[in-house]
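The methods section describes the discrete structure representation at length, but only in general terms. An entry of this sort, consisting of the sequence and the corresponding backbone structure tokens, reads as follows.
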Amino acid sequence: TRTNPDPKAKTSEAFTGFIVDADTPGVTVGRKEWNMGQRCADTRGITFENVVVPKKNLVGAEGKGFILAMSAFDLTRPPVACSAVGLAQRALDEATQYSLQRASFGRPIARHQAVQFMLADMVIGINT
């Protein structure tokens, strides 16, 4: 949460981490967002209006919340990237299988140049 209202404050020093219970007065939890390929990620918007948080709920030092959040991202970036590559590979596998089974004009659509280009673009996207 931004705890330094000065718009000129350094981002790295303007935020503080807190633990706040969802049933705290003034906390509104939004609807669950739809995360394609990440159904287990419970992503929601949270609104805080005049929420009072006791000092004991502070996470880390005051003004160090941004650094704390960024360090958490450092831990989650590799598995998220691996999941994205795995999902893309599965999509390519499914598309390839489908293109070999589905026929158009008397032959599998995998033999049509336009479909081959699409599959090739998928391969390039996965490998670069």
Observations:
- The chain has three helices and six strands.
- The helical segments are 11-14, 65-101, 113-127.
